[in-house]
Amino acid sequence: MSERAAPFHCPYCGDEDLRPSEEGHGAWECAACNRAFRLKFLGLLARGLDRSDTGGDPE
Predict the structure, then answer these.
(1) pTM of the model
(2) Domain range list for the chain
């Protein structure tokens, strides 16, 4: 089993200068905009993945 994925960009400013926060699991700090945020996986959607809506042109 692999480790959990880390965010690549700050959700507020888009910068990549992120560090894990001392606040605990899933908490991150952005040095560029001086914000702290927490990521949490809520679960899978009951409806699943709708592959019929791909966003392409209808034929």
Answers:
(1) 0.65
(2) 1-40
